[in-house]
Queue: 2 jobs
Job 1
Amino acid sequence: MVSIAEVSLVKVDRYYEYSEKDLVIEAYKQLETKVKERVKPDVVIVSSGYIDSIGKSNLSAVKFSNSLGFKGAKAFRVENGDNGGASIYTAYSLIKSGLAKSVLLIGIDKFSDLSSKQVNDFTATNLLYDYEYHLGLTLHSHAAILAKLYMKQYNVPYEYFANWPIKMHEYAVENPNAYLRFKADLKTVISSQLVAEPLRLFDIAARGDGASIVLLTEDSLAKKYTDTPVTLDRIAGASFDYSYELSLPSIRLAMKELDHRIDEKNIVELHDSYSIIAALELEELGLGERGKSLEQLDSFQINYSGGLKARGYIGGATAIYQLSEIVMQLRGDFKGKRAVGEKGIVVSTDDLASSSFIISLTR
Amino acid sequence: MRISPPKNWRLKEELYNITLGKCQECGSVFYPYQSICSSCGSSRIEKIVSRGHGKLLAYTVSYQAREGYEKAMPMPIGLIELDEGIKILAPLADAENVKEGAEVEAVLRRITADSSNGLIQYGIKFRVIDNAKYDR
């Protein structure tokens, strides 16, 4: 069995005065105050999408490991675009296989050091084909086309998508670690800046800076650090090409592998890179009818953090935030809106859900 | 914005032509061309140059620039179904009053330029031939 002994995260924000290393140290200091004994991980894994391109730093795991005093630990970074679920899969696999007894998983990304157009250029490297990058396309343009196809297929107006940011901002107001802690009404959403028609600013994840750390251990070791470990039951994943069929095959395949029906009793954090992707994820997970899912949000416990839309979006660190938040929900010490249930689900994808990992946790 | 001449040369079959692959084993058609089939794994792949002709299924206008593409803003972008049966996303040229369902064709256009050395990036865009609904 794989346990999560402890978690920590810093509030998502723009930290002009802090480097990536400063944010990781802040998150680690938090974690140290919560564990009963000093952490000595066998392996340090960094989950980051952009620390090499935006942060201009390779060998980041080695640098963080040395800075935190883990000399001798194995240290490496897992890059899978914005899908930090791959790093959770790696950490889980190391412990499950017996290769490591403890893994310190560090999520870190920092967008505010560059302008939006520079960041857009780096995020566009996640496009699956070279020609798309060289023609100047963006992830936003892909999502916009999906939104157009969805509106046509299900005969819904643009206002349908506004349900998502309105709900996410409502939740974020209660979360002290969220980036955008304000309510948004329909008028605010539909009059916000047009990014790629029909997508507006409120349909897009809010990029921020942050670090989150999770200490995973084998079952027997967890009690050394905490009295309230959470079990990471299963993790399933899949990758797939783009689909213009209003479905997300990577999630469908991961769900099949997970072999668990997600329902209203589960506490869910999903990767809402765009309102349209949130809708497609919900529908693929069975958490809403096709073409109606964004009108059925109150039926499920989804993204009480505020999601990428309002808690904030931290690139490859996002999944580590999601994992931390679900663990806190299951333990009952999440500082925002509280969910009820004994099973938590993290849905980690890249921004267009070409790659997905679904993680199941139990109190 | 840095343009790499070797990289552009390597990508000539997908940036200056729409070169497709057709699997001789399973019949899949894909873009860009590669020497292995991503559906069945076969290496028996025929190289086909697309007619560059098809139907506009949907379009958007992008207002948020990427570094190096500022002059292309706002950028109309379309989802095109080629006559060969595959769907690709590409910028639209001369896209005023464009309508979904329009008949479109590929054209070579200037995409961007490298501000440091003056190199120009060309690539495929699509323009409308006829705004009436196109049925193959």
Job 2
Amino acid sequence: MRVRGCLACCGALLLAACAEAPVQPPPAAAAPGPTRQAVDAAIADHRQKAQRHGEAGDHAAAAREWQIVLLLAPGDNAVRAQLEAARSAIRQGVRDNLQAGNAALRGGDADRAMAAMLRVLALDPENAEAAKALRDIDRQRLSRIQAGRATRAGQSSAAATGRAAPGPPAIAEAGDSYDIEQRIEMFGAGDLAGGLRELRAYVDANPRNDAARQRIAAVVYERSQEAEQKGAWEDALMLCEQAASLRGKPVPEWTARAQALRKTLSEQYFERGVQAYRTDVASAIRLLETSVRYDPGNRKAQAKLQEARAADEKLKRIEREAKPR
Amino acid sequence: MIPLPPRPPRRRSSLPRALAWLVAALLVHGCATPPPRSPAPEPPVATDSGGVLARDDDFAIVLARSGDTLATLAERHLGDARRDWWIAEFNDVTEIRPGQTVVIPLAPRNPIGVHRDGFQAVTVLCYHRFGNRASKLTVTPAAFAAQMDYLARNGYHVVPLARLREFLAGKEPLPRKTVVITIDDGYRATYDIAFPILRKHGFPATVFLYSDFVGAGDALGFAQMKELVASGLVEIQPHSKTHANLTLRLPDETDAAYRERMRGEVDVPIKVIQERLSLPSLAYAYPYGDVNETVVDLLARRGVALGLTVTPGGNGFFAYPYMLRRSMVFGNEDLDSFKARLVTFVRTAGR
């Protein structure tokens, strides 16, 4: 019974083995209609694109499209030939344009060289020689721009320190140039030291740029007013004086305000000095000295300072005498 | 449970074994016989399970099915849904329909973006400050929002600065309309005003910080910088120590003293950013956009790969990495001026 079963099984296997190996049904038969249509449409579309690119001389794009058509229609020898023709045109174009580009480079014509090298890369994006040539051209171009900026800045800096012959302002008389605006923003954002240093550097480098000086000084003066409103009298005075210095020309209103601020500060330090005098003569002297420094004409402060110094001297003498010998 | 009795040992018959050998031999013979040739595969219409009609090393041609999108196709065939733009640009489509034949470039075909009629350029935008009072360097929140909306609505891809390095090396293609956003100095308004707008669009940006600024009234603090970095959208990079013009020497400064001062301008912000934010420095923006070979040399020695000027224009793949062009966005200009700064293709045909 088992043997019979085996025989039947073998027979079935033999039949199966002798039967034709399963063959993929013809694709057209397997594909539903819409798929066939989609593929045919894709072939037609890419063939059309390839022809259009080829006619326009864009061999790289043509080759790409022929490659796609050939993928969709691998048995089409005409397409294969078109692809080979496009690739051959690419090779020729690369050779010709490299030659032209190198000739332009030797002749010092960077624009023509760049155009030729770009044509090479449009045909062969991996062409290392053309890529290197373009990088060199751009580096030289940008380095020249930078050198020009540095030279202008250097000239104006030298002019400011009297190391160069006078000439036209090195940096254009553009009160709204980026260089100024950047410095003003730094200053306005609270980097007072850095901002003032940079504004001063600009003014020093461009001493004859009156428009810039006017704008910079006005910004600094405005900041001084803000400081005064906040009761930051010393900042207000410092900024007011910086504004006058950056302006480079006397501004009576600013001069008067600086004097008023000095007097105010002198009064404030005098009051604090008087207060301190009761308990701490050394501190009182420091405060009164500051008061007099702000306003050398402050007679009250001068007198009180004299009094404080005398008292201090007296105290020291008493201390010296009280020391056991 | 009753144990089953042990099975008697099987009797081995030689006939089935012989038959099995015979069958095996016949099977081998049958399989060795070449199958009849099928007809030449004229247009291969049958698709595999992935919908692929045809494929070689360069392309896969697929028949889009229901549910396919640019992203799913990119995920399936390129291994990364973010490469959906490779497919979109190659096929010049913005979306996929079922039944559509789609060509998928399997490798970047033209990573340098040079074409017959011109070359791809990447615009690096440079902002400074944001605030309600517009000025040359202060852009209002409304203007910034309008600019970012414009980028989002018009198919611009805003990428991190690091991706520009790969593009310049010719390694990685960038989408046709690519823009990089940078913000100089480190104003607090970057956090208060710009960041929420950037986050809304998912746009990355690089903040260039001059380290002496930290602690000033309107400057970013490190806590805010950490938050910006943690978002994954913002990176902080060096912009000098003092914001001095790096090409200008001090009066009577010797070569050695100048180089030493420049070393500080390069090293200090890099160190601060590394120590306070644990970020490596890839790029450096020059104060006022000015640089010379001394500074470039110091940057290269420090491993900084990109340097940014304020020379306006777009950057082709061949741009000198240490003097990259950057276009400043001014607060006193309108949206049309902003659009004009977006140089993403430089036409050369007819040159």
